[in-house]
Every structure is written in structure tokens, then in C-alpha cells.
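Many introductory courses stop at the sequence. We go one step further.
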Amino acid sequence: MSSAIRTENLTKSFRRVTALDRLGLDVPEGAIYALVGPNGAGKTTAIKILMNILRPSSGRAEVLGNDAQRMAGKAFTAIGYVSENQELPGWMRVGAFLEYLRPFYPAWDRDLEKELVKQFDLPLDRKLRELSRGMRMKAALAGSLAYHPRLIVLDEPFGGLDPLVRDELIEGMLERAPEATVFLSSHDLAEIESFASHVGYLDQGRLLFSEEMTELANRFREVELTLEAPATLPQRLPTTWMQAKASASAVQFIESRFDQERTGTEIRQVFGEPRNIAFAPMSLRSIFLAMARSGRRVEEGDRL
């Protein structure tokens, strides 16, 4: 499968601060890829390099087969880009704003524009500066979808929006998803879990993992053991166990490479035969919290 976005050893430093550290991304065409991580992780920096707003310190980035550093003009007619901090011409009315955009995109679809205006309930006769933040985001998204982009890039599109507006934005994006690749950064883990096909976790500029959402969900489990005797934790545990703790005759930990047969064998090697073993699936938010609390690093190409 070809890649819509690919980076190799992408690094960006601002004086003594390394915002991106040898980032290696591979976003398949047709994916809905969510890049997540805490504030300051480097998500916006990565997107600005992909959109040729910032230059990398080293490394390489390709977007739709083009060198990101050389993208200009025509290359952007295949990309829809919406940023949380995107500035719109506030003095323009919504209708005039869409009319202004049309000539820049040869594939602009007037019928689709009308559908998006209706779907997002955009007031064509109102100035952009008079709209709420949510409505401005809708206007920006409509202006980025009306020309059938091959790639939709969204930088923190849901931050600070009320649930109804957020749902409307997600619905509009997903309706276009079958004809495009979607790449977004977001803190809204619950929403991402409901629609993303792939996820990458960025922390302090380093990519800790990048994989399909279903694979990620399948390999993490909360494990609880009930033992016959009071539990103590040995100094050395399997490297895939995270946040192990013991209380009375119970042991709890997170398995980050779950395989019921292998995990069960390791449990018996460490604790003998438990009275009971319980495995529970984890939400995306719980997985990321576990990652953040553990402070682990996963080198490129290596999984927990």
C-alpha cells in the first residue's frame, strides 16, 4: 500500500529545544490517522513541516509523493488543511469567503459546497469575525473539503468545541473520508477512538508507537491476579508488564503485548498457579495514560 505521508529521521530544533527527534511516520493512503500526545509533544511542529510552513533541521518528509520542502501552489490543491489557530479574514462574509477560495482549486465542486453549507448550517451573509469559534471551524472545514482533496490535514480541530459542534465536524469529515486520507492531531482521545483507523503516539518529539487502532487495542490488557498467599513482586518482571503492584493476595499490571497463552505462561513462571486470572480490554485513554505514567520509550520499529 502506498503512503500519503512519510517521514524519515525528521528532526526540528529550536535553539536548545528539540521539538521533533528523528520522527519516522508512514501514513497509508485511505487511512484516518490520529497523531496524539501531550501538549508540547511536537504534533503541531510535525504538521507545519508537512505543510511546508516550517523547515526541518534534518531528515525528510513526503506528502502525496512530493518533498514537503518543495511543495507550493498546485500541490496544495490536493490538500485540505485546517488548524486550530488558523486565521480567517474576519471582515469577509462566509459566502464571499467561499467565493474567494473557488478560483484557487480547479476541482472545486459547487454542488458539494452547497451541501457543506447546508450540513454545517453556515450563515452566508454573516462576517467570519461575528461567528463563534465552532462556526469558524465549520467554515474553514467547508472551504477545505469542497474541492475533493486527496489528503485532509487537521491540527487540533476539536479543541474547546461543544459536543454538538464537534460531532458535526467529525460527521462532515467522515463523509469525505472514503475519497481521502485523513491526518489529524487531537487531545480528544474518546472521539478519536470512535473513528480513527491508525494512531501514533508522540512524546517529547519522539514517536513511541504507530499502528492500526485494532492492533493497539488487541495488545493491551489490564491483568488482575488472585493468589493463594500474600503477594510480593519480584525485582525482575517481564519487560512487557507495566505498572505492576501488589496488595494482599492480589497483583495488578498492564500487559502491553497481550497473548493469552504466552501471558498466562509468564504469570505462572513468576507467581506459580494463581487462584484466578482476569484480563480486561483498555480504552485508548487508559492506554495512553499507562504509557505516560510508565515513562517508557519505544525505539522506531520496536514495540512494547
